[in-house]
Amino acid sequence: MTTHPVTNIDDVKPITFGNGERFEATFRWISRQNGAQELGYNVVTLAPGKVAFPYHCHHGIEEAFFIISGAGRLRYDGEEYPLRGGDFVACPPGKHSAHQIINDSEDDLQYLAISTTRMPDVVQYPDSGKVAMSCDADPEDGPNARPFRLIVREDAGVDYWEGEEGPDD
């Protein structure tokens, strides 16, 4: 990883991923290029009619979005807001900042996404009733260690004491 503090967006390889017809975005992962440690930041481009991620909220990290160009719509805590170039969106941790950026225009929507990288994180997905838990890989597990990530339905929980036995049992 480079430790040069300046990275030009043109020097960052775009990566596109998504799922189905609705979810698709192109990312330029800047913070991975210039050695950031406690912030993640990337430039996201959404084609017309696309969204990058499902409607969600984080409980461990904070996110912010700066709309660089284009127009779209923000779903936020059950409300909707128009977006245009120059808008800044704050998403502090917690269930009242569930959010999703939607490009409902006829042109590309481009924004800068910034977040803290504090782990572990718990992410709720209100539309689908899922919850995700994740944490970084332990560096002591070596260079091929994988981070922990689990996604389940919110109603899949078990009782706190299920499967536990006392010392005298």
The DSSP helix count reads 0
CATH topology of the domain at 9-118: Jelly Rolls
Alpha-carbon Rg, integer: 18 Å
Low-confidence stretches: none
CATH architecture of the domain at 9-118: Sandwich
Largest sheet, in brief, is: 6 strands, antiparallel
Q: How big a fraction of the residues is strand? A: 35-45%
Category from helices, strands and their pairing: mainly beta
Number of DSSP strand runs: 13
Strand sequence of the main sheet, in spatial order?
1-2-3-10-5-8
What is the CATH class name of the domain at 9-118? Mainly Beta
Helix content: under 10%
* pLDDT averaged residue by residue: 92
**CATH H-tier superfamily of the domain at 9-118:** Jelly Rolls
Q: Using the alpha-carbon principal axes, give the shape.
A: globular
Distance between the termini: 52 Å
The H/E string reads: EEEEEEEEEEEEE
Describe it:
With 169 residues, the chain is mainly β. The protein has a domain at 9-118: Jelly Rolls, CATH 2.60.120. Helix content is 0%, strand content 44%. It is built from no helices and 13 strands. The chain has strands at residues 15-19, 23-29, 39-46, 57-58, 63-69, 71-76, 79-84, 88-91, 99-102, 109-116, 121-125, 130-135, 148-153. The strands form 3 sheets. A 6-stranded antiparallel beta sheet has the order 1-2-3-10-5-8, with no helix packed on it. Strand 1 (15-19) and strand 2 form a beta hairpin. The chain is globular, with a radius of gyration of 18 Å. The model has no long low-confidence stretch (mean pLDDT 92).
Observed structural traits:
six-stranded antiparallel β-sheet, globular, single chain, 169 residues, 0% helix, four-stranded antiparallel β-sheet, Jelly Rolls
